[in-house]
């Protein structure tokens, strides 16, 4: 199996050199997060991911989860790994210190998340879902709920889930049917069936806290009649010890394409006792707070898997001797040259590299803005950051999972037939990554969110949070000769994005189907321009290190930026043409003719 | 599980209306293949694929093959299905009547192949490999070998394999080590290990005939020292009855991402008796004859799976109610509108449709030329057809499997979370399709074949077999107003292809790495232009049926052509830019920096 090493050098680059991570400590609440605290955290995270989680990735995929008498057994080694993970404090890093968390900046946490996803995405699902539940309760629960549940979710002795989907509704939650009846004691009785519940049942923790969307008896129809409830597997006593088993059970687990070691459960709620989280009928709002952080995390899943795939592919391309360089043998002493001499193999590896490092920078930028949104003393700065994060969330989710899927497939392709064999683990990255394009809102839904909500939000104010820095950068660098080969293609792509934005806004206003048909092209165009901007900025940082670059790290940055501009950014032209062609051929096709 | 219906209407369209299939009967040897013979063959093939093969597709994937004491058991039902298939004469359709075959034109056979791949690719591998062995023996074996083996391969009582790959060499067969020693009786003793041998061992037939690449003792090094041998599992007596077990055995079967019901074997040859096929040291030539037909077949695998995926996705998009049309509820009486109202869902379905029907036309065109190559009385026509087929083979293989993989993934995406669940069969199409981009020469190798061999072949004569008809068509349609919306984008893309061709030829001559780095972009650019040309031609045929189109078939053709030009062909612009940027950023990246 391909091994995984956390790309700490590049992580430190985006954190400290691109995003000025050392300034984090100047934000209220982050005072202690200086570099000498952050660096050891990253190194420890790398260790646990490389040594504890990654060795279970392949075996977890082979074994999968099993359901017997309503109990789910995770694959061999997962329980022990979870204990190590929990005892190491990793469930607590991104949580509020009030409840035992470590309050790690998001800028650092995204890096840890990437390592976990790269090492073992299935494993990462369990603490990931717990964190989603934590966010919902922390953001919307009352003090009693918070005091009782949060310390356990934070220290990882209890896990959590998000129960949204039902058999007849996924994207369209307005259709959901699960019912909540008041029990007269301030709690509710929930009845209904939820599907696709990740970590719905498992053997990693003593209790599982379900966050469940359901309808109260007086609920308005549709999306405005949904409330959020907390339903524990075991009802805790006031002291936190476990009380009675609640009426919630796992009816089945799904057999899936990938993330096989993550239990995806059908959950039956049968007169289960639950507590309201937030206000009645305002469940979607509470859920969206959670969903936005989750969407960033899902984007990072794509990146993590793509990074793991890249590492495997590079190792193979160095070791596998096959064929000779087109320009003549490079290693005449060996029976053949390594794959790495072949231009088409390099092309694949460089696509992986350029999209991975670009996405890492994009995640870092978004996380940095999240830190500003949550911790900056100036409300104007907080607002700007919030606008930026809202705008970029669908892009991070969809772009990074689409590019991640493409990258994991390139990793298989570099391996040839050996990539298709399960043994090497390369095809697992593809299967595991595929779900990330679907869950937490399909990538098509992300695109609609971008064109339908985010573009128009606050009269385009959000949009300016991206457009302004790019414009300013292009202006500042217009005369910079060393940067010209990067700035010129970026400027061209940026014009396309500006024109496409105007077109989508104008045409979409007249006919929403125009925006709908353009959405996916537009999101990718936007995302590729964002990566282009980040590549230009990374190259700018790297160019300042000429002559001070013993291991060639900065030279490689500039070279990858060049590759991105040459070989990937041109896609924006095709996306622009497709988008400008409008919705006619999409909507004009007769329904019966499909 | 999604059901599959053979797309007979569209198959007849490409065969008779686009490619003038009724003229086949004017070719010597094809006299009997008039429409009233062909149509029932297609209908019977559809029946066996829909009713016998497709019902075993999902169960075959779940169960896979098992190896016990050197014997491979295929999944439940495969033996019975194979008997039905064989008794129906389906193993014989594309074979020489001299040996019991039915001599079906390739133009018809590709359609049957598509149905088999769509219905059950794993099953199709067994007769598919047998046919590869048949082609090799038929083309290069002496009369004794042909008389003894071909009737059994044709009637399907024996199966065949192609044994090329070894653990240390796949693409680079020059490295292979399997040895063949003369035994003094005209036969040879083979010793060595082959891997990735599809259908290497199974329980469908009483005997298996391995076609094996090996080295004779006096063989020159590398690719010019490889000979082809026939090694049967049981050595037949002169009357065709089975004699002694030969020294060939299955050491292991691979656990793979997909095509799990197809046994992929490690085959050990231990003093196995074999017979030379063709001349000593000329094995690669014999193998390439087989490989070229196989490459077309692999392209068709991509198409078949993509068609099956499209059908599943359309059915789901009609049935699944989720959300409301962006322009207001289309079915206010129902709890939600069907997915089909959503522009982004339509976009995905139309990409599938446009690439599938385009690829079907491309396969039909190539098959038609193969029929001319093999049966036309005029040697000049035969030569032209041969040039065309040689040129298009790598494009058919790589383009159709790449587009097929993209299409099967879109099928999953239309299903959302339900697509990721094994139950619906949509994710299986993705896993099964993934291998088609790899085997019979990875798609990167196809691209190198195109730019390295086919472009330059015969001073560009092959190239003109494609360029001339496209030029002529564009010229003829330049003033046709009804066609303008299709012809104009095609003309633009064709100019890109011409310029890219000149660039690849020129730069590649100076530096082979330039051609190597451009190869994948170039192949796709070429392929998309080819589909664009075929879409314009299909629309031309369809437009002639205005007012004579009761079920809207022709209207849908024109509408799909429009979609192709609007939304897919623009990719040629991005490919052109990437290609014109040259190899600098690919080859300039330092080896150590990966």
UniProtKB/TrEMBL annotation, chains A, B:
Positions of the Acyl-CoA dehydrogenase/oxidase C-terminal domain: 282-450
Domain Acyl-CoA dehydrogenase/oxidase N-terminal, chain residue ranges per copy: 43-156
Any GO MF annotation of the entry: flavin adenine dinucleotide binding
EC nos: 1.3.99.41
Cofactor dependence: FAD
Record's keyword terms, sorted: FAD, Flavoprotein, Oxidoreductase
InterPro entries to which the protein is assigned, alphabetical: Acyl-CoA_dh-like_C_dom, Acyl-CoA_Oxase/DH_mid-dom, Acyl-CoA_Oxase/DH_mid-dom_sf, AcylCo_DH-like_C, AcylCo_DH/oxidase_C, AcylCoA_DH/ox_N, AcylCoA_DH/ox_N_sf, AcylCoA_DH/oxidase_NM_dom_sf
Catalysed reaction, written as an equation: 3-(methylsulfanyl)propanoyl-CoA + oxidized [electron-transfer flavoprotein] + H(+) = 3-(methylsulfanyl)acryloyl-CoA + reduced [electron-transfer flavoprotein]
Domain Acyl-CoA oxidase/dehydrogenase middle stretches: 162-271
Signal peptide: none
Residues annotated as domain Acetyl-CoA dehydrogenase-like C-terminal: 466-589
Record has Oxidoreductase as a keyword: yes
Keyword match GTP-binding: no
Function: Involved in the assimilation of dimethylsulphoniopropionate (DMSP), an important compound in the fixation of carbon in marine phytoplankton, by mediating the conversion of 3-(methylthio)propanoyl-CoA (MMPA-CoA) to 3-(methylthio)acryloyl-CoA (MTA-CoA).
Record-stated family: Belongs to the acyl-CoA dehydrogenase family.
Protein name per Swiss-Prot or TrEMBL: 3-methylmercaptopropionyl-CoA dehydrogenase
Organism of origin: Pararhodospirillum photometricum DSM 122
């Amino acid at each position: 199996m391909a091994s995984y090493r956390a790309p700490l050098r590049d992580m430190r680059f985006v954190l400290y050199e691109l995003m000025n991570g050392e300034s984090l400590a100047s934000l209220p609440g982050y005072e202690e997060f200086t570099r000498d605290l952050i660096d050891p955290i990253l190194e420890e995270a790398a260790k646990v991911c490389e040594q504890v989680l990654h060795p279970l990735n392949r075996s977890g995929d082979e074994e999968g989860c099993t359901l017997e008498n309503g109990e789910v057994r995770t694959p061999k080694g997962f329980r022990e790994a979870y204990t190590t993970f929990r005892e190491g404090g990793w469930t607590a890093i991104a949580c509020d210190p009030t409840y035992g968390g470590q309050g790690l900046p998001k800028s650092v946490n995204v890096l840890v998340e990437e390592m976990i996803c790269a090492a073992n995405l299935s494993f990462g699902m369990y603490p990931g879902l717990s964190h989603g539940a934590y966010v919902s309760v922390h953001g919307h629960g009352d003090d009693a709920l918070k005091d009782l549940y949060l310390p356990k979710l934070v220290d990882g002795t209890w896990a959590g889930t998000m129960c949204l989907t039902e058999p007849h509704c996924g994207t369209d939650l307005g259709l959901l049917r699960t019912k909540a009846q008041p029990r007269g004691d301030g709690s509710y009785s929930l009845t209904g069936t939820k599907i696709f519940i990740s970590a719905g049942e498992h053997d990693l923790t003593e209790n599982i806290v379900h966050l469940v969307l359901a309808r109260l008896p007086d609920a308005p129809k549709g999306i405005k009649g949904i409330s959020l409830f907390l339903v524990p597997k075991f009802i805790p006593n006031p002291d936190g010890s476990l009380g009675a088993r609640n009426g919630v059970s796992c009816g089945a687990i799904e057999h899936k394409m990938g993330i096989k070691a993550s239990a995806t459960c059908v959950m039956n709620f049968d007169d289960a006792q639950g507590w309201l989280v937030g206000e009645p009928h305002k469940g979607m709002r509470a859920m969206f707070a959670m969903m936005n952080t989750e969407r960033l995390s899902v984007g990072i899943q794509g990146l993590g898997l793509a990074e793991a795939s890249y590492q495997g592919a590079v190792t193979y391309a160095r070791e596998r001797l096959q064929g000779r360089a087109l320009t003549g043998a490079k290693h005449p002493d060996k029976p053949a040259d390594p794959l790495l001499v072949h231009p088409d193999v390099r092309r694949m590896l460089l696509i992986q590299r350029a999209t991975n490092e670009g996405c890492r920078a994009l995640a870092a930028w978004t996380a940095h803005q999240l830190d500003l949104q949550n911790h900056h003393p100036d409300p104007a700065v907080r607002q700007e950051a919030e606008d930026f994060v809202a705008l970029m969330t669908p892009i991070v989710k969809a772009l990074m999972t689409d590019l991640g899927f493409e990258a994991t497939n390139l990793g298989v392709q570099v391996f040839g037939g050996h990539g298709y064999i399960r043994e090497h683990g390369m095809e697992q990255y593809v299967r595991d990554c595929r779900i990330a394009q679907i869950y937490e809102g399909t990538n098509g839904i992300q695109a609609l969110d971008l064109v339908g909500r985010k573009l128009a939000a606050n009269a385009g104010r959000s949009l300016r949070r991206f457009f302004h820095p790019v414009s300013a950068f292009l202006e500042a660098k217009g005369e910079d000769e060393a940067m010209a080969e990067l700035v010129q293609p970026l400027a061209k792509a940026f014009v396309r994005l500006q024109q496409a934005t105007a077109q989508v806004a104008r045409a979409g206003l007249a006919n929403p189907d125009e925006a709908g048909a353009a959405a996916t092209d537009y999101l990718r165009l936007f995302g590729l321009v964002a990566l282009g901007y980040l590549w230009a900025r990374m190259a700018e940082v790297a160019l300042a290190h000429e002559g001070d670059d013993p291991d060639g790290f900065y030279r490689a940055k500039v070279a990858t930026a060049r590759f991105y501009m040459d070989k990937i950014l041109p896609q924006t032209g095709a996306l622009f043409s497709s988008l400008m062609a409008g919705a006619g051929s999409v909507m004009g096709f007769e329904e019966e003719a499909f």
